[in-house]
Specification:
The protein has 14 helices and 22 strands. It is α/β, with parallel strands linked by helices. The chain folds into two domains: 274 residues, Metallo-beta-lactamase, Chain A (4-Layer Sandwich), CATH 3.60.15.10; 184 residues, 3-Layer(aba) Sandwich (Rossmann fold), CATH 3.40.50.
Length: 465
């Protein structure tokens, strides 16, 4: 059996891990799109690194585009097998892939308008038709229930937090009389998440593939988040009568913000200003989250006995129309605008930042991980000026950052996640999905905890199991 790594190797994006069983099926763990890689992004997304037609099964850990975003390209290039995941993951992946195809087609049309007829025309990686073909391959698997895929493959999914529907993928593989147990973390959530269940215990594995996004740091306490948000809103919107712009991922982070603001309202501490969710995708994602209460932790399920919608509160408005979004840029009323994308690299939020960043009354609150090449990462450095859409803007607005809202485990969470594993029974741990410094630090931590063989794969590197 061989495993090769075609993404999330030395970086935090583009997760694709390929298992080839001798005289057996070929399995792909996630099929993510590269994001935030600068000028290399497009080239990296065009080549999967393997033949799509040779893949028999895909197991999807969760819906984020850096784990699911190239599934339609896989199908377009010849994959005709089944794509497995939890029902929450597949529901969320559907809306994300539709959105991705729409954006790619719109971007291609925009670029082609500027080109002469004899110039090469821009083509999207995939279209909505490719997404429809991909959805036909989806097959949901019940969490916590072993599922036999064929004579060589049995899979069990275990809740892992992070975002709605995310799971550990635990494979029991048979190859020429050998049994191999492999666990793939996808992205590990945090223990004590305000909305989702904590990562579940999973069985002993022979091989483990684990993320390391925050393998070198600790987060602030989650329970301080609502109070911190309240203080920032009061400072910007109440004290200075300005706008607070919050770039937020449509899946996960937006719902965490809404839940925190709802918590403030229940405690009669929510600042009396207008709140906008300005993202059609965020609106759809929130509806999907509401339709899967089985993913919520006991505290949220208890809350829902007297608050049927923990993601709604006084003063909240959803903006879908493009003109209504543009009108927010001219309003003088103090307000909070939650908009995608989370790294401020694209989408409506980029326009809101461009229109707000040079006004000292305003604020920008960053609430998640930002790839180093993105606008969000540049803003975290609190520069004197930034370039947006080719124009330079002086940074006069206050820049805030809350690290406690990260959906990724820190090194204590990652260590707790692995605490049920006997290191002596683990043949090898593959550390993926992290920047080099984070991966190196987490590798050292694992070695100190008794894991004997810990490796950091490079792009397209192959190992024998």
């Amino acid at each position: 059996m061989k495993i090769s790594f075609h993404g999330a190797a030395g970086t935090v994006t583009g997760s694709k891990h390929l298992l080839r069983l001798k005289n057996g099926p070929t399995i792909l763990l996630d099929c993510g799109m590269f994001q935030g890689m600068g000028s290399d992004t497009s080239v990296m997304n065009e080549e999967l690194g393997f033949e799509a037609s040779q893949v028999d099964y895909v197991f999807l850990s969760h819906a984020h585009i850096d784990h699911s975003g190239l599934l339609p390209l896989l199908v377009k290039q010849g994959f005709s097998g089944r794509i497995f995941g939890s029902s929450g993951t597949l529901d969320m992946t559907e809306i994300l892939l539709r959105d991705s195809a729409f954006i790619q087609s719109a971007d291609a049309r925009f670029l082609n308008k500027k080109r002469q007829p004899n110039q090469q025309q821009e083509e999207p990686l995939y279209t909505l038709e490719d997404v429809e073909a991909t959805l036909a391959c989806f097959e949901s698997i019940q969490v916590d229930k072993p599922t036999r895929i064929d004579s060589a493959v049995e899979v069990t999914l275990y809740d892992i937090g992070h975002i709605l529907g995310a799971t550990t993928i635990f494979l029991e593989l048979k190859e020429e009389g050998r049994n191999i147990r492999l666990a793939y973390s996808g992205d590990v959530g945090r223990y004590g998440d305000p909305i989702l269940k904590s990562p579940a215990i999973f069985p002993q594995a022979d091989y483990i593939i684990i993320e390391s996004t925050y393998g070198d740091r600790l987060h602030d306490k989650v329970d301080t988040t609502p109070e911190h948000i309240k203080e920032i809103i009061e400072e910007v919107c109440v004290g200075k009568r300005g706008k607070l712009i919050i770039p937020a991922f449509s899946v996960g982070r937006t719902q965490e913000l809404l839940y925190a603001l709802n918590e403030l309202e229940l405690d009669y501490r929510l600042p009396d200003v207008t709140y906008y969710v300005d993202s059609p995708l965020s609106t759809k994602a929130t509806q999907v989250v509401k339709s899967h209460p089985e993913c919520f932790n006991k505290s949220v399920q208890k809350l829902m006995k007297y608050d049927k919608d923990p993601f709604d509160f006084k003063g909240l408005h959803y903006i879908e129309d493009k003109r209504a979004s543009q009108a927010l840029n001219s309003t003088e009323q103090p307000c909070v605008i939650i908009s995608a994308s989370g790294m401020a690299e694209a989408g409506r939020v980029k326009h809101h930042i461009a229109n707000s960043i040079s006004n000292p009354r305003n604020g920008i609150l960053l609430v998640g991980y930002c790839e180093k090449n993105t606008l969000g990462a540049r803003l975290k450095e609190r520069p004197d000026e930034v370039t947006i859409y080719g124009d330079t803007f002086p940074v006069k607005a206050d820049i805030y950052s809350i690290e406690s809202m990260s959906a990724h485990a820190d090194y204590n969470d990652l260590s707790q996640y692995l605490s049920t594993q006997d290191p002596d029974e683990v043949s090898k741990v593959f550390v993926v999905h992290g920047e080099p410094a984070s991966q190196d630090a987490f590798k050292d931590r694992l070695l100190k905890k008794g894991f004997h063989d810990v490796v950091i794969p490079t792009m397209h590197e192959t190992f024998s199991l």
